[in-house]
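Private note to self, pasted from the team thread so I don't lose it. Backbone tokens:
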């Protein structure tokens, strides 16, 4: 959980729209919507997913190679399954 807190804090610092609050419910978006969003949002979502799928006891390390591998697998899965929910897709392909 500590890893997730650190990642969420980093995401908050990176957000560039302080005047407008933005929320994205990842449980409601499809693979197609995910693939159509801008690169910055995709990067933030991927970072969030890495924290979400990390074990509570994992060390606070960002493994960019793993993130890249997981991102490629998720992108391939989503391209083949555009109507599947993003979290469902991530459940299938993110290397745990």
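Design output:
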């Amino acid at each position: 959980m500590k890893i997730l807190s650190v990642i969420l804090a980093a995401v908050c610092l990176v957000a560039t729209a302080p005047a407008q609050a933005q929320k994205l419910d990842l449980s409601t978006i499809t693979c197609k919507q995910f693939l159509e969003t801008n690169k910055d949002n995709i990067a933030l979502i991927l970072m969030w997913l890495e924290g979400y799928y990390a074990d509570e006891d994992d060390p606070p390390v960002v493994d960019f190679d793993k993130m890249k591998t997981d991102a490629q697998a998720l992108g391939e899965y989503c391209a083949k399954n555009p109507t599947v929910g993003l979290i469902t897709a991530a459940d299938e392909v993110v290397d745990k």
